[in-house]
Amino acid sequence: MNNPTLKEIALQLGISITTVSKALKGYSDVSEKTKKAVVDLAHQLNYSPNSFAVNLRTKESKTIGLIIPTVIHNFFSNVIEGVLEEAEKRDYMVILLQSNEKLELEKKQIDLLLNKRVDGILISLSNETGEFEHLKAILSHNTPLVLFDKIAKLVNCSKVTINDKKAAYDAVSYLIKKGYKKIAHFRGSYLPQNSIDRFLGYKKALEDHNISYDSSLVFVCDNNMDFEDGYENAKKVVDTHPEIDAIFAVTDLVAIGVIKYLNEVGIAIPKQIAVFGFSNWFMSSVISPKLSTIDQPGFEIGRKSASILFDEITLKKNNSPVVFQSIELETSIIVREST
Amino acid sequence: MNNPTLKEIALQLGISITTVSKALKGYSDVSEKTKKAVVDLAHQLNYSPNSFAVNLRTKESKTIGLIIPTVIHNFFSNVIEGVLEEAEKRDYMVILLQSNEKLELEKKQIDLLLNKRVDGILISLSNETGEFEHLKAILSHNTPLVLFDKIAKLVNCSKVTINDKKAAYDAVSYLIKKGYKKIAHFRGSYLPQNSIDRFLGYKKALEDHNISYDSSLVFVCDNNMDFEDGYENAKKVVDTHPEIDAIFAVTDLVAIGVIKYLNEVGIAIPKQIAVFGFSNWFMSSVISPKLSTIDQPGFEIGRKSASILFDEITLKKNNSPVVFQSIELETSIIVREST
Questions:
Q1: What's the CATH fold of domain A4-58?
Q2: Which region among A19-23, A142-146, B77-81 has the lowest average model confidence (pLDDT)?
Q3: CATH superfamily of the domain spanning B164-295
Q4: Which residues from A are below 8 Å from B3, CB to CB?
Q5: Contact A53 B50 (CB under 8 A)
């Protein structure tokens, strides 16, 4: 490249043009000190042929990646909004990808983001994600990573969650205190940590209140924890266990499927069967009967995850050490008409 | 840049290293033919120091921008999902931005996207957008642009919409045929074309069925066409015009606010007042009573807008002429319990 600025930088710093060029491209065989000097001087000299070249120089893309299992879920829409708000403040842009709950797609999307050289990545894992090499690849690539909601405990990075076990424990304890004794649980699929934790919270609440755990009252929602899952499982549980008096569902969407089925067959809520959800989606406050649920602060989860990621990006840029954080945001019980 | 590959390319093509370098950076004083020859040969020689350099060479970012007024709305979540699906097929990435219905933010976000050199931009305009210079800037920048849902008729680009006027006309005509005569309309704010068109469809349906238009039965939803808008306007219309027998709301979210208020004050739906929505959001099928509405195909709108944009990006790359398209997707009436 016949570039007078490169020559000027080389001359002023007393290094070769090749070193300048390598420094601007972030090659690892140039020391961080030299890189910084070159980039600073390049800035002073207004060396900016175009934005891609800026990327080459500063190694910053001012872009982060956000991988979400299902965009359409109200909870994740709230997360996205929180992330966008934090990014907006910093003039950062967000590349949004949807894994569709598929591990293969999640892997591919991480590759794309790393090739794109995003400054950091936020992920809520797919339901299929039971191996973590692709996540560790992000870290060995020295790209900041924050996991949220559906996390992997074994991956060494910052995490933002709620205490799913405690929240579920609180919900089921509340039901027991209200006098419900035969409580079914419509759980999420087997891999996601939050499904496991909500199930464990349900189980522990029963044990702590001397109600014996009955595995035949637990039904798995493996159709994306969807409305249909709630509807179908409600049918099953009413057929096989007419004696149940409450259902604790893994998400509001599942609970709304339950309510729809019970309404259709004329089972009174909460008189005959109480229904408890999880997430506090908007619609849970407008259906009939209004759904009791756990308030899961999606917007706050998005904001907090993004803000930790941006902090880590800044620390990395300044060559400062990063201490990973595990944040648990508070949840609360919202009691409405369904219990 | 002391790069042997650049020398090799220059030698093989019989041009200067400076020209090779300029061609790879896409400078306009190098002919398209030369650029193509240089890029092709660079590919053959596997000249790819990093992805930013690839951008420099091909001038493609493999990224598009998507500006949405409100991510949290179920309709836009569907649109996003449609866009992501089309992008995924082509290994493209989507930068998502939320204008929050603010013109200033929309302008800034377009600047960011243009600086980022995205290959194309998709926008649904904010409710404040009544001037269009920032949109024309995209076109004069020679970046493909597709507007969808909330469009500007005066901007010369491809557009994907539904026929809002016809859909509203169909909804109100249906109400009239069912015997409703005093039909109020809770309209959207004044700027968005789709609010205007839905209002015009309402008015025309009345006229064509010899019902005189009464402006005091039209209420504006200026709080983002939100749930609260429906709730508050329902209160107003019931207080000031107890004689009305139906309400046609600009969105399902507004209609759900209406249903909540009418349920609270014990007005029977549809016996005393029928309610008609617009969009067919998921929750409209699970609230009580279930809402009659217009099915607005968000997912298809997203897919179609993205697919037109990608076609235009390809045409541009091949220096082929682009013919702008205006696509109107079909809507249908969904009759449920509320009418």
A1: 434 Repressor (Amino-terminal Domain) (1.10.260)
A2: A19-23
A3: Response regulator (3.40.50.2300)
A4: 1
A5: no
Predicted local distance difference test score (pLDDT) of residue A50: 43
The residue in chain A having the minimum alpha-carbon distance to the alpha carbon of residue B75 is A72
Mean pLDDT for A247-251 is 97
Distance CA B275, CA B269 (A): 7
**Domain boundaries A63-161+299-331, corresponding CATH code:** 3.40.50.2300
Q: Tokens 């074309």 label which residue?
A: B193
Mention every residue, 6+ apart, whose C-beta is less than 8 A from residue A202: A168, A169, A172, A183, A185, A187, A248
Window 90-129 of A: residues touching B by CB (8 A cutoff) are: 91, 93-98, 105, 112-113, 115-117
ipTM field:
0.78
A102-121 tens-digit pLDDT: 999 999 999 999 989 999 99
Domain with CATH 3.40.50.2300 in chain A: 63-161+299-331, 164-295
Q: What pLDDT was estimated at residue A51?
A: 42
Q: Distance between CA A192 and CA B1 in Å, rounded?
A: 49
Distance CA B263, CA B273 (A): 11
Residue of A nearest to B92 (CA): A112
In chain A, CATH 1.10.260.40 sits at: 4-58
Q: CB distance from A71 to chain B under 8 Å?
A: yes
DSSP structure class, residue A70: -
Question: Percent of chain A beyond pLDDT 90?
Answer: 72
Indicate the pLDDT class of residue B31, thresholds 50, 70 and 90: confident
pLDDT at A46 > cutoff 70: no
pLDDT in tens, B40-63: 787 677 664 444 444 444 567 899
CATH: 1.10.10.650, 3.40.50.1450, 3.30.450.20, 3.40.50.2300. Which one for B63-161+299-330? 3.40.50.2300
Q: Containing H/E element for B19?
A: helix B17-25
Give the residue among B248, B255, B79 at the shortest CA–CA distance from B167: B248
